[in-house]
Design goal:
This protein is of the alpha/beta class and 242 residues long. It has helices at residues 41-52, 77-90, 103-112, 130-138, 158-167, 194-203, 223-239, and strands at residues 15-18, 26-31, 57-60, 95-101, 118-124, 181-186, 208-213. The protein has a single domain, classed as Alpha/Beta hydrolase fold, catalytic domain (Rossmann fold). It is globular.
Length: 242
Amino acid sequence: MFGEIRNPKGERIDYTFHAGAPSATRLLVIGHGVTGNKDRPFILALASNLADVGIPTLRFSYSGNGSSEGRFAESTISKEVADLGSVLDSVKGYEIGYAGHSMGGAVGVLRASQDLRIRFLISLAGMVHTRAFAQREFGAVKPDHGFMWDDTECPLSQSYMDDASLIDSVAPKAKSITVPWLLIHGTEDDVVPIQDSKDILAQAGPNASFQSLPGTNHVFSGESNTAAMITVVREWLKARGW
């Protein structure tokens, strides 16, 4: 529907559009986390469920991930902020919301703090303290030689580590986000601690709200946990006229 989407480097961004109600004027764009892609089960479930109740969604893979063009080793947070900008450039005619998971959550905060086209923001187990995350998860891996979580398809680059370190934390950007903002985090998340969401919430304005999901891990595994996350998102959007 939106034609070919390419980022500033000319790399094609792979996406899937789920049409909602024919008269819908709002669109939720969904971005994934580090080593992920648009086809993660909970992302697919979220997009499909929202479309079924009339809300159009577009889920996409950042460059270097999934079937999008580009090298994974070049997939930094800053590059993904630019990727998201290219997606927003391509979905004209809609009022846009963005939902980002994990590193995609950090991308959303950085983009929404500077891009007024994002009118609603959702952080799903959103990464906040980027330098701490990179050191905690990959500090023992030699950049440009090792891999993220021993996945040979996901080489750890010095560029990724440097970018995460330079950003350090997206928490200071919270005060720049004035649109409605929902943060969801599972209590059993052992990848991005729930404290990340609490820390950025403390710096956010009254437009932000937080929902913890007891017993839920980083990727909302399990049918009931996925359903709980979707229900929170759906009801929050409904309360805001979606």
